[in-house]
Amino acid sequence: MTDEFGFDQDREYRNEVIGIEDFMGSILQKTGSKPFKAVDITAIIGSAGSGKTICIQRIAQEALRASFAIPNNQPKMVHYVELKYLQEDKLMKPSKFLFCGLYKCETEEDRAFEWLMGNQTDAILIFDGLDQTTWSFDENSVRKIRCDEIATPSTIMYSILARSILCHVKIFITSREFKILELPVKVRPKNIIVLKGFAPQDARRLFISLLPEKGEKLWEIIETMSPRLLEPIFLPVFLILTANVMGRDSNRDPPTTATELYNGIISCLQTIENIRNGIKIFSIMNKLKSVAFRSMEKKMIIDETLLKKFDVSAAEAQYIFMTKVPVPRGLLGGYVFHFCHQRIKSFLAASFLAETEFDEFSRIYEELLHEPRWWDVRQFVSGIIYSKPFNNFHKGQHYPSTKYLLLPRNENL
To answer: Hey, which bits of 31-165 come out as E strands?
Structure first.
């Protein structure tokens, strides 16, 4: 039996549930003094907000601590690569793919790569955010390359996963499920760890610690009035956002779905004095809906040029939902912009879709929404369109006919 994303649910790693300490212990045991196996590639997958990046960063920290604490212990190199900056139209060598931005010149990148090639069993490579790349892994366009060849980022990643280069390096990679599914079967990681969120008792304890004066009472309200929210609230980002929304006005009914939760976040922003008086918040939010959707549609990295197309300044973008991040030297140059969380981006893109005319919505539905990468957006679109009534954040025309194109697949949303 397979789940929505095509993963075999009968495999052992899909059924075994372990705590974070057991998980970290098993990982560190694998990064100990024994040589790594050539097939030892581990994918850490989970939905947006499940804690993949935090988890992988802790793995790096713990592995480094172990290497310093025990003389001659492996690894000697733990290298973290953020994949989202690597554009598919840029040709590069594997050395630049791995070390761009870390060194001042190509010679130093080549020297680091040469050391890595000669000390593979002493190294760990961590690739974060495969799902945030704009790459395509079409088997007709990717191939195995040599370590000195120039290729696209997707081809280099494919070669690393296929073990045609760096075949003895320990590798961790994070992604949402859909991007792992896009990989050709023969290069999908054999070890897959699925992040399922907090245990119920831990979620409750953290929620109460975030709201010490009224957290226990509010948690009981959630259990009584919003039972459908209990499953997603076990994810770290949902728990924190729910605490934020309910903590601001504990007299209001709690959100009963994820869509209501994110609408609550929008309402919270309206109550912040410097935002309410400093800028026209809804005007900018409506523009960011277009930015979110179009960047997903075209698989584009958001830079100032894209923001200007939708009449959004860099200052306005950073004022609400986005952060400005310098790009590693030698890639794009300048700065790019990221939404504060992938879920926020999905919600804004869904808000854009919910307000499109029926003919345009039908086109997008037929051409795009069947793709796995739109899963979060599909859920939010269903939640927004089926919500009654439209709130003041969704001021566009409501087209009831779109309901007949959408079958909500998760009533929690």
So the answer is: 41-45, 77-82, 123-128
**Percent helix, strand and coil across the chain, each to the nearest 5:** 50, 10, 40
* Residue 402 DSSP one-character state: G
Report the alpha-carbon distance of residue 286 to residue 303 in Å, rounded. 18
- Going from the C-alpha of 86 to that of each of 41, 95, 302, the distances in angstroms are 21, 13, 13
> Residue 367 in contact with residue 320, Cβ under 8 Å?
no
What pLDDT is stored for residue 383 in this prediction?
83
> Stretch 150-172: mean pLDDT, rounded?
91
Interstrand relation of 335-339 and 191-194 (parallel, antiparallel or unpaired):
unpaired
3-state secondary structure 361-400: HHHHHHHCCCCHHHHHHHHHHHHHHHCCCCCCCCCCCCCH
Residue with tokens 């830079």: 303
Residue 386 confidence class, pLDDT cut points 50, 70, 90 = confident
Rounded Cα distance, 305 and 384, in Å? 30
| Residue 298 neighbours by CB distance under 10 Å | 9
Q: Which residues of 158-168 are buried (b: 16+ CB within 10 A; e: fewer)?
A: bbbbbbebbeb
Can you tell me the distance from the alpha carbon of 246 to that of 224, in angstroms, rounded to the nearest whole number? 15
Q: CA–CA separation, 216 vs 210, rounded Å? A: 10
Give the list of residues 6+ apart from residue 19 with CB closer than 8 angstroms, or none: 199
Task: Give dist(CA 316, CA 253) in Å, integer.
Answer: 32
Mean pLDDT of 307-322: 85
Q: How far is 406 from 393, CA to CA, in rounded Å?
A: 21
Which residues have a Cβ under 8 Å from the Cβ of 163 and sit 6 or more positions away?
A: 38, 39
- Tell me, what DSSP letter sits at residue 251? T
Residue 310: per-residue pLDDT: 92
**pLDDT computed for residue 323 by the predictor:** 83
Rg (CA), the chain: 22
